[in-house]
Amino acid sequence: MNAKIAAALVFLALNGYVYWFLGSEEVIPPREAFSIFPNEVEDWRCIGRETLDPEVIDNLMVTDYLSCNFVNRDADTQTHLYIGYHERQTRDRESGKATAIHPPEHCLPGSGWDVIDSKIVPLSLARDGLADGVRGEAKRFVIAKGNLRALVYFWYHSRGRVIAQSHHKILYMFLDRARDGRTDGSLVRFTVPIQHGDEEAAEAVFQEFASTVTPLLDDYVPN
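RESULT FIELD:
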């Protein structure tokens, strides 16, 4: 037998053993529902929670979510926040559909937006010089639809990890499933309109709002 084929078969066998035996008991951690997420966070206020269509929820296979436009106290700056929580990322037992988090870059073209700039950037949202805070990596997009432009930041958030790349998320999910029986995770996404082509101003809005709201995540996205 070809050595590469043999190695692949051994890897698949070990993969199956770890997945089905070491982490056979599924664990769903306790958390707070997004229904009690505050509508006001310091100088920012949610101006209307959005309800996703049943078809969208069925496609995303999301367990719980928050989708809202937040404006600052002067109502001259806004940003959209979406957090989608998946209590498991395997396959739904009834429908057989995959419940894994959908990467936003796969959905944007379908909604009419083009990605005109994309990069992975370090993320550090600690406030006022404090040592704690959200740290890791995020994907930073600039997207366009006609004359509209927006700045998008998103990352996968689970067990205190802030991960930008899908394959890293999959690797950690596999390890967590094997060790602790957990596959839960979340997608955190901020979308800030770019006004008058001022990308730096949009960046400042993201930094301010994200630093304000991310300290609340631990109650809704279990570590």
